[in-house]
Design a protein that fits this description.
By secondary structure, the chain is an alpha+beta fold. It has helices spanning 83-88, 93-98, 124-136, 152-162, 193-209, 215-230, 246-249, 265-270, 295-307, 350-363, 452-455; strands at residues 16-21, 39-49, 55-63, 69-76, 102-107, 141-150, 168-174, 186-187, 190-191, 284-289, 312-317, 375-379, 384-388, 397-404, 408-410, 421-425, 461-464, 472-486, 491-500, 506-516, 524-537, 542-548, 572-577, 585-591. It is globular, with a radius of gyration of 25 Å. Helices cover 19% and strands 29% of the residues. It has 11 helices and 24 strands. The chain folds into 3 domains: 5-174 and 275-388, Rossmann fold; 186-268, no CATH class; 397-591, Jelly Rolls, CATH 2.60.120.
């Protein structure tokens, strides 16, 4: 059903206005500004009525004057009035407005100032379509809309674009998943517990405030959730069973978060981008981080859109989901690694590049040049930006490094009869998550972290190469092949690639998990997808591979019983084979 968008912009309550004076910013040339002292008009809580009568509200930033202005839209569940969240969307609305764009930041359905019920993802297709057409008809709009934003705000872009609203001219999703069962809700069978629990608690605060419980009761329940947050590391994450967490049940939040979403095919389908790229007919600009929880989804989205023949761009920095400048984790990548403030290309910083790109597609005659190459990668190790004609990098050569007895990682394949490696996995004492592509409670920060905290454990196998005799670049998707068996009927296999520095620091690059639901007691070949990275192992550095059965609380613990819906758990004895008939190895995309 296509709504009558002419009726969507009728105001339902008085609006508030603000006028801001801004000085010119660096990045785009001053002649591209409409005024050297541009003034920005902001309207708060501008109402737009959706096709089912629900009113959603937005803040609208306009350059002073009649326009018409190209329009940038983002739709957020996190609150359009929160400065931190607004800035994390990737573009400062005031700076974008003073450069000649109208910017619309809308609270999604059931969130903050917008009406309706909060059900993650469910309404974003129809609401996205309706909002694009509403924004295109706002006073001052030139009728061409571009969508921007990260994470959930990136999902809202994709779901709107799949519905093909006529006024949508471009999208720019940042850090956005593609297949929800590969990094958003689950990862190869394991629940993304580290993300699901804190996200449910944080979004649950606004949900509790809308239940009409009265000020005193609302405050009591909000305080109780905040107390849960503060002790999540020693308490909430450990609740069993995961599918019926007492932490969420006692606050009435079990049904509004992500824990159960993977069990509901309709909910999974409502946020799935994979398989629908052919329905998206607008240019797309993709921004990713090597340590972002949605890294592979962003790369997959770019690759799919590029293969469709639509203009697509990709930029990948050394960032996490929330950190875009030094230090990232426990590593410094230099000032040029930052997303804002310093040029990452000849045309300015990442925000400048986005605005120039939007200008090309929303104004059509915008004359700011864009980089010729569609892909821009930050190569860690050398800590430098590099342009590429495509992703994946086509000149990559896949090489194997074999897991060998004694903890060696070798270029030579194993011989017959080589002794297997063993360890014991106890779900009551899992290997803890240290850094990586995570978005967890604050006690588990993301990014590159020294793995010494876990490498001393006897339930984590370590395989290390000899020092590199020359620089060795790995750029692309990494996978580990294990021939393995367990004493348990069901278990998990976790693998990780690390860069070992000459001073002994072992910094994680990428990792993955595979849940074996049944039949784990029989030796079988397992492929673990570690997603992607770009890193030069400098001369004197060593490659290291971890093999274990847990990374908690990033992923929920496999209880080794074959039944994750109960609290009972068993100890498992794990065996990794690495002989001539059953080799185990890591496959690396090597750039010569």
């Amino acid at each position: 059903m296509t709504p009558d968008v002419d009726s969507l912009s009728e105001p339902t309550q008085p609006r508030q206005h603000a006028t801001l004076s801004c000085l010119p910013a660096s990045g785009l040339p001053a002649e591209d500004l409409h005024d050297h002292e541009a003034r920005v008009i902001c309207e708060f809580d501008v109402p737009g009525r959706m096709r089912d009568g629900v009113t959603l509200r937005a803040n609208v930033y306009r350059p002073e004057g009649a326009g018409p202005w190209p329009t940038l839209l983002t739709r957020t569940p996190y609150g359009k009035n929160l400065p931190g969240d607004v800035l994390e969307l990737g573009l400062d609305p005031v700076q974008a407005a003073r450069r000649g764009f109208m910017v619309v930041i809308q609270d999604t359905r059931g969130r903050s100032a917008s009406e309706g019920e909060w059900e993650p993802f469910r309404f974003e297709r129809d609401d996205g379509y309706d909002t694009v057409e509403w924004a295109a008809k706002l006073p001052g709009s030139n009728g061409r809309v571009g969508m921007y934003g990260s994470s959930y705000c990136g999902i809202t872009q994709w779901l709107a674009a799949i519905e093909r609203p006529p006024s949508l001219a471009a999208i720019s999703p940042v850090a956005t998943p593609s297949e929800p069962m590969d990094g958003l809700l689950t990862r190869r069978g394991a629940v993304e517990l580290g993300l699901a629990v804190p996200w449910t608690l944080v979004t649950g605060l606004d949900y509790l405030g809308r239940l009409g419980l009265g000020d005193s009761e609302t405050q009591r329940r909000v305080n109780a959730v905040v107390d849960e947050w503060d002790r999540m590391g020693e308490d909430g994450y450990w609740d069993l069973p995961v599918h019926d967490m007492e932490l969420l049940r006692r606050h009435g939040l079990s049904g509004v978060g992500l824990i159960h979403a993977g069990d509901d095919p309709e909910r999974v389908a409502s946020c799935r981008v994979a398989g629908s790229h052919e329905k998206v007919e607008v240019p797309s600009f993709h921004t990713a981080g090597w340590y972002d929880i949605f890294l592979q989804g962003t790369l997959d989205n770019y690759q799919a859109m590029s293969e469709q023949g639509h203009e697509s761009r990709l930029i990948v920095g050394p960032w996490t989901h929330e950190t875009f400048a030094d230090p990232i984790g426990e590593q410094s990548f230099g000032m040029r690694a930052g997303r804002a403030g310093l040029p990452v290309h000849a045309h300015g910083d990442v925000n400048d590049l986005h605005l120039a790109w939007f200008g090309r597609h929303l104004l059509l005659d915008f004359n700011v040049a864009l980089p010729e190459a569609p892909v821009r990668l930050f190569v860690m190790g050398r800590n430098e930006w590099r342009d590429e004609p495509a992703w994946p990098v086509q000149r990559a050569v896949h090489e194997r490094r074999f897991l060998r007895s004694g903890g060696c990682l070798a270029t030579t394949s194993p011989e017959a009869g080589e002794t297997p490696s063993e360890f014991v996995y106890d779900p009551a004492n899992p290997v803890l998550t240290v850094g990586g592509n995570t978005l967890e409670w604050a006690g588990y920060p993301a990014g590159p972290m020294d793995q010494a905290k876990v490498e001393s454990r006897d339930d984590l196998l370590i395989f290390t190469s000899e020092p590199m005799e020359e620089d060795f670049e790995v750029t692309g998707r990494v996978r580990v092949i294990l021939h393995a068996e367990s004493s348990a009927t069901s278990t998990d296999w976790v693998a990780r690639l690390c860069d070992v520095h000459p001073d002994g620091r072992s910094l994680n690059l990428c990792d993955g998990i595979l849940r074996v639901g049944s039949g784990a007691q029989t030796c079988a070949r397992y492929e673990i997808d570690l997603w992607s990275t770009s890193n030069v192992f400098l001369r004197g550095h060593r490659l290291r591979v971890h093999v274990t059965s847990s990374s908690f609380p990033r992923w929920d613990r496999n209880l080794n019983t074959g039944n994750q819906r109960e609290s009972r758990h068993d100890v498992a004895r794990q065996r990794i084979y690495h002989d001539a008939a059953r080799p185990s190895y890591i496959e690396l995309p090597v750039i010569k």
